[in-house]
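In response to the reviewer comment on reproducibility (Comment 2.3), we provide here a single inverse folding case reported in full, input and output, so that an independent group could reproduce the run without further information from us. The structure tokens appear first.
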């Protein structure tokens, strides 16, 4: 009788939420790519994600996340992340028992916290003379290590996006599943760069994860120019 009016999916969601709650709450950020890049198309870029708040303005307490340096498509001005353009996923623990700082347990923490996403751009062109020389005599693995070191040492914040934690938690399906505009940080640029991102909290939004995955895959197919899966 106590299950009257509930579907099998409702019951499965309840069980999944209980299981995930036992593992601890966490934030999941899934990024497909960036579009609208019009300058420095021969320069590699990568993502830099952090959870910032009044208590932790740089996000060091959560361990900042850095993506892989990736080259944009010079014809389309797009940049798709991940193996086979499948996107990338980042997680941040939101439970102290899972390694999150103790201040996440504060009642007002969601009102003071933001997810900060930065787009970093290397100042070293991929087709520079230095890079071409590396191609000539270094093994691929060592060459990539050297290129990554150069890109990381000589890079700037090209654009930044801040998402309030309260907006993420308040959304029925989290935040995103759409192209979200960055705020340009490079003075003099006129490009309007956008990020396709999905942000949700588990177990709060666990039941809508299948929908999120469906929307993400549809956009991935569209951006990659692939035929939709049967």
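Designed residues, in position order:
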């Amino acid at each position: 009788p106590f299950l009257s009016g509930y579907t099998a999916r409702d019951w499965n969601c309840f069980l999944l939420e209980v299981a995930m709650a036992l593992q601890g709450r966490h934030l999941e950020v899934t990024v497909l790519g960036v579009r609208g890049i019009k300058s420095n198309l021969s320069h590699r870029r990568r993502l830099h994600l952090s959870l910032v708040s009044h208590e932790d303005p740089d996000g060091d307490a959560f361990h900042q996340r850095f993506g892989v340096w990736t080259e944009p498509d010079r014809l389309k001005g797009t940049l798709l992340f991940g193996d086979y353009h499948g996107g990338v996923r980042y997680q941040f623990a939101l439970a102290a028992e899972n390694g999150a700082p103790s201040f996440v347990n504060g009642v007002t923490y969601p009102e003071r916290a933001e997810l900060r996403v930065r787009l970093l751009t290397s100042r070293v062109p991929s087709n520079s003379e230095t890079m071409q020389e590396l191609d000539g005599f270094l093994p691929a693995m060592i060459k990539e290590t050297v290129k990554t070191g150069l890109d990381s040492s000589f890079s700037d914040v090209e654009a930044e996006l801040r998402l309030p934690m309260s907006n993420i938690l308040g959304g029925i399906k989290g935040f995103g599943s759409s192209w979200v505009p960055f705020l340009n940080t490079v003075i003099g640029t006129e490009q309007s760069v956008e990020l396709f991102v999905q942000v949700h909290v588990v177990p709060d939004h666990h039941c809508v994860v299948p929908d999120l995955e469906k929307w993400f895959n549809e956009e991935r197919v569209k951006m990659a120019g692939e035929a939709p899966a049967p």
